Amino acid sequence: MDKLRIMSVFGTRPEAIKMCPLVRELAAREGVESLCCVTAQHRQMLDSVLEVFSLKPDWDLDIMTPRQTLSTITSKCLTGMDEAIDTLKPDMILVHGDTSTTFAGALSAFYHQVPIGHVEAGLRTYDKYSPFPEEMNRKLVSSLADLHFCPTANNRGNLLREGVTGSIFVTGNTVIDALKTTVREDYRFSTDELNHLPYSEKKILLVTCHRRENYGEPMRNIMLALRQLAEENRDVELVYPVHLSPVVREAVDRYLRGAPRVHLIDPLPADEMHNLMARCYLVLTDSGGLQEEAPALGKPVLVLRRETERPEAVEAGTVKLAGVVQDDIVTMAQRLIQDRNAYAAMAHAVNPYGDGQACRRIADAVLWHFQRGERPADYQG
Ligand code: UD1
Ligand code: UDP
């Protein structure tokens, strides 16, 4: 029997962190040739993840330009994917989540009539413009996909209500598989500054912020809130690996740089980031991935957004929506910094997003689709 050619397509940092373990899992399966096509929507931040997971792509579209627009990302991906698909001839294409790479990868697969598996399917806010453009990207991909790999039962419920066609699996999120390979108690950071942070004497606040819907006024408010928190709390150190987006870097330079107790550093390799998260006190972020990782590590999260498509950890009590108003963010963070009971109520490890077996379930489901194995049992949460 010919080997199945399963091609994973991704381009940004979070997609890479969540897809590299799956590319590996597929490569370990007899009867599968695991192919990897990167768009490089992100260049340096993608390459950093590929290095951590020792993965060499089979195809690289190398599309990134500074201050790229949504249209240029999408059109460059579409054009580049034609040649990748014609040359690599995949039997199935796997895309992840909700980025422009994801949408263009799925659309291209559809144009070539290649079956599509959507990893991290079914997340929704039901607000077309928030997150922008991700909410619409993932809805469009749900219409195109044949196999939907939902992290949680709640995500499956969203797809069932929308009446999507194809097969739906509840698998857990592959980010938990990734975390299991990166976090270690005896970890030493190659960014030496992180080895010397006062983890026991002070409260380390880990921050990230990059979302397009936060550009402008919301990002200004967030930066000013972070500045106020650092200025008013001597027992706090704020560590912020700043995204390479020039829009984000300008906001950071304008409103946050120079504040006391603030460490502005370059984006961290995934293993460094995961281990820093495991040692920090509190996470403030607008990132999707951090909302999944931090709860698994027992770290409270304040989400710097108005909504979230990840309600599971909010329900479990480890994540709270802080919004994008300066006073609200400061008040909620101050409470967690000063009130031990409020902190303890949130700082307990819960794992609504997976058990580290998501990649195994997804690989099983792919083989099942081609009648080469049993249908995997759903992740029960
Ligand atoms: C993208 C995704 C978003 C995801 C985020 C993860 C879309 C529309 N957005 O947003 O869903 O949450 O990635 O980080 O797909 N840059 C570099 N080097 C890099 C990466 C980025 O220089 O390695 C700069 C470039 O100038 C680029 C800009 O950052 O133009 C913005 O990157 P882009 O991928 O367009 O959007 P993000 O906001 O990062
Ligand atoms: N991350 C990283 N280095 C950093 C910041 C984040 O490796 O300096 C990881 C983080 O642990 C998570 C992922 O990147 O796994 C989240 O990516 P991002 O916040 O860029 O995108 P989102 O999840 O919001 O789509």
From TrEMBL:
One Pfam family here: Epimerase_2
Domain of life, source organism: Bacteria
CDD domains, sorted: GTB_UDP-GlcNAc_2-Epimerase
Molecular functions (GO terms): UDP-N-acetylglucosamine 2-epimerase activity
Segments forming domain UDP-N-acetylglucosamine 2-epimerase: 25-366
Signal sequence extent: none
EC number annotated for this UniProt entry: 5.1.3.14
Keywords from the UniProt entry: Isomerase, Plasmid
NCBIfam families named in the record: wecB
Similarity comment: family membership: Belongs to the UDP-N-acetylglucosamine 2-epimerase family.
Record protein name field: UDP-N-acetylglucosamine 2-epimerase (non-hydrolyzing)
